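On to my pick:
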Amino acid sequence: MAFFAIPLCPPPPLLSRRISSPSPLLSRRISSPSSLRRILVRNPRFPLLPRSSSEPATKGFDAVGEGGGDKISRATLLWRAAKLPIYSVALVPLTVGSAAAYLHTGLFFAKRYLVLLTASVLVITWLNLSNDVYDFDTGADKNKKESVVNIVGSISLFLGFMGLVWSFAEAGDIRFLLLILHAILCGYVYQCPPFRLSYQGLGEPLCFAAFGPFATTAFYFSNSSKNSLSGTGLLPLTGTVLTASFLVGLTTTLILFCSHFHQIDGDLAVGKISPLVRIGTEAGSSVVKLGVVSLYVLLLVFGLSKALPTTCVFLCALTLPVGALVTNFVDKNYNDNIKIFMAKYYCVRLHALFGTALAFGLFIARNRTIP
């Protein structure tokens, strides 16, 4: 999925005021690298680690001490900072959309798929870098041209957008470009002023729309072809791709929702009213359970209505243990601010496995390997 905004949004004034003038006590405490490390490790609210890419411009903090305290390893810190698992949000919509197109046409454009995958990863990389600026910088470098974030982020965004434009030129389907732009717009109004709709608790609906109906359907249309000799032409909008995109959007939104459990205090401190700030963690655990149950109920309904092939229902049903893992973990740990940190990673696992099963089910249905 691709989110972008030009120019980079400046940090909100509230954040700039809170960070730009550290207290004398804090200044005295950070007198050496060793003392800085002690503060980073022992203070669970210190803003070191950026959020995942599915959480554009949020104001909570992923703490160093979460999930490991003083025993956390450098490798774990680097893994969290790289946020590699979260790039499934680029892979799943593209793969499911392409599989839905394959079900309809029997054709797969490998080069186009790889270009779109690279473009999506590049744009999400820009999103991660820009989020670091929005949420954790003091604002001193926001106009600094030689800033690593500004340079690398801008290059990443430019290359990613060029990949999207090339794919549009290959497909010749204006619906692809329009839907991708709508997905990008969701990311813009989520994270950038003057909108910053995430502060109003609208992040989850925007995430669902962007990664689900907009991105997945857009990637389905990216498999159209302006070359009539290929036998493809412009793909029709089908119930299969709509229902598949709905399920992808739901699993993606679960990642964002669960990422807020351990960040309620940080969100409150900067005026971000996330859904969990409004309803609390206990009610939030019930929402997670409802979301996972709804995922599999909808899967069954879509299968019975023939909107999704039987193969999709069968293979996606195999991920039920992972769905149960998510609900049980959240239900058991929603009040444990350290352990609940892992909830979003379990949701990433569910998102990736469910999306893979959904795409593979569409592929098999075309070849009629399973009745």
The longest helix spans residues 110-136. Confidence is low (pLDDT under 50) at residues 1-70, 136-147.
